[in-house]
Amino acid sequence: MFAASCSRDAKPATPYETFATYTKAINKKDTTTMKLLLSSESMKMHEQEAKAQNVTVDEIVKRETLFREGQRKLEFRNEKIDGDNATLEVKTSDDRWETVPFVREDGVWKIDKKGYRDRMLQDIEQENQQTEDQINRDRVQP
Q1: How confident is the model at residue 119 (pLDDT cuts 50, 70, 90)?
Q2: How distant, in Å, are the alpha carbons of 9, 18, 46, 68, 124 from that of 56?
Q3: pTM of the model
Q4: Which of the two ends of the chain, N or C, has the fewest CB atoms closer than 10 A to its terminal CB?
Q5: Nearest to 42 by CA among 108, 109, 116
Q6: Cα separation, 55 vs 50, whole angstroms
Q7: First-to-last CA distance in the chain?
């Protein structure tokens, strides 16, 4: 009964705490914990990738961690929470700041790797469009 009352009073993990737990799970090669910390949409994405590559979901989860295995130092900044969405800027092992999106599912913050991938694709499309626009502006008309 004591444990049940304590768990009711337990404060849910913040996006930062979720990310810190995820990083520890990567270093321990704890795929089960890694999967528990990913959003349902991220897991669906990984299931599709696993099926397409004829590998297990665990292999995809281990391979696509957002950060390098063995990353010891965890630096973050600018945790922003907006309703059921959040972001956290995390410094990667190559000293770049990456924005990691989170979604709240059933009151728990989960890493939204699908949102991360979608944002990267959108950034690439935007860069391609800017390059194409520049090429068109520089094109000499006959």
Answers
A1: confident
A2: 37, 24, 9, 20, 28
A3: 0.72
A4: C
A5: 116
A6: 5
A7: 83
